[in-house]
Amino acid sequence: MLNEKKLEIISRIVRYNIIYQTFLKKSGHLGGALSCTDILVNIFNNYLLSDEKNKFVLSKGHCALAVYSVLYQAKKLSKKKFESFSNQGSFFGEHPSPKINNKYLYFSTGSLGHGMSYGSGIAYSKKLKKKRGHVFILVSDGEMNSGTVWESALLSSKLNLNNLIVIVDYNKFQATGKSDEILNIKPLSKKWKSFGWDVIECNGNNHLSINSSLKLILKNKNKPKIIIAHTIKGKGVSFMENDNNWHYRSPSKNELKLAKTQLKIK
Amino acid sequence: MRNYFANCLYKKIKKNKKIILLSADIGNRLFDKIKKDFPNNFLNCGIAEPNMITFATGMAREGFIPVCYTITNFLIYKSIEQIRNDAIYNNNKIILVGTGSGMSYNHLGPTHHSLEDIGLLNNLPNIKILSPADNNDLEEHLKHSFNYKNNQTTYIRIGKKNEPLIHKMKAKINTINKVSEINSKIALIFTGPLFDSISEVQKKLKQKNINIDILNLHQIKPFNNTMINSLKKYNVIYTVEEHFPETGIKGIISSKLSDQKIIIKSINNKNDFISHLGSRKYVRRKFGISNNRAYKIIADDTIKNRNRPR
Fold this sequence. Notes:
The complex is a heterodimer.
Chain A (H helix, E strand, L loop, with lengths): L3 H22 L4 H6 L1 H12 L6 E4 L5 H10 L5 H5 L31 H14 L6 E6 L6 H12 L5 E7 L2 E2 L2 E2 H4 L5 H7 L3 E6 L3 H13 L5 E6 L22 H10 L4
Parallel strand pairs in A: 1-2, 2-3, 3-7, 6-7
Antiparallel strand pairs in A: 4-5
Chain B lengths: L1 H14 L3 E5 L8 H6 L4 E3 L4 H13 L3 E7 H6 L2 H10 L5 E5 L17 H6 L4 E4 L4 H12 L6 E5 L19 E4 L5 E5 L10 H6 L6 E4 L2 E3 L3 H7 L4 E5 L8 H8 L6 E4 L13 H8 L3 H17 L3
Parallel strand pairs in B: 1-2, 1-3, 3-4, 4-6, 5-6, 8-9, 8-11, 11-12
Antiparallel strand pairs in B: 5-10, 7-9
């Protein structure tokens, strides 16, 4: 397990690499990639890379670059592959391709509301096979609009999939506005509790908070688990934070420079 | 057919515990024996078909062979994106078994009919579409679906109950089944369990000195070269199906034989929902499927053709 200080340093590097690729390739979905960076850095470094029995599903497929960046920083993805992001002929797109087919990315998402159903199928299979380990699924708050999320919530609860850990990147925004204004998904905790899930809230941009909530929730052996991680869209760069334009736009050269300074990258 | 499916699946599960039957809350008592003897091999996923499909693909990833079962229209129409993305694009083989296909639910109306499923799935790459005419076909289709060498998602479009057996021989995968072949230049080709609605046509036409072959298109996709070549000898091919013809077997055969001088015509030419309730025969007749209609169309065309000056 890496301590919070180390994780925080990794987060800054991972963020910068995301922003740099977005700058180079003029790609979108930067805000959501930055909001979930700390969650990904945390679960990959503390749970996924060290234990092959744990599985991962990226349900908010549009932020695949954040996963590539975490894997690249951890030396689980080559520089060549990472830098092929969004290039002609590459499989490392804004959404992951099944052709990537490594231990962590083998299921293409992009259409939202699929990852939970898929991950719960994996979790149930693990139980049938009496295999240990957890299935971590990263979902967006926008996905809470999708009916399949709730279909899957019902089935996972019925099957008592205590090996399932869903983490919501609750950055309060979706494609065209505030998630609470588009379809009011509040109160999220109460909703999930009423569906029979073990719910915990945390600050998803703070490793101390993520660590303690993961430790706490893993102690419960009974129910499927969901961590509602409150995050900030565009986290880490002041002028990107809570500005939903960064769902679509990419940084200019000057903005990249500013971001580099703010992230303390030399 | 659904009872036979349940019996066949019981035997398959007995031999291979990796087979898991997922149902979207359908098949009351149908699977009691599976539930009792192999409780881990059955799961009712509730009336939530899209979740069932993607859940199944997760299980496929972990080495299971999931069979997703419910009424065809719910199975396919509610979940087309899940079938496309999660099963096919992501290479997770599942077996889709749609029950009550076509107009099997003749008393329940168009919300329970499936007249578009073949077209929807035929449009997707890397999927197999099987359409058994009777239980013998179904048995062969299940065998083929579970064969470990077959790594493609497979759709089996079955009927409901009391479909008569039409074949002595089992369906052969990758071929078109000949129900009755007398080396004619005219063929009547059907798909699914509807032979009873065209069983008189051949005999009636014979009285007018018209000979036709009756063919059973039990495998719709892949539609391979052997199948294409076996149709090239005909001058006229009539199709009949509980499906809209443009995207059904009429459309598919037309596209496969587009470089041939063969007239291809559908007996059922309706492109609208059948809201009338009634017996299976009645609803089929409303849709344009009957012995009389098939006889009349083929006889009229053939006689017209004979009298045409050369």
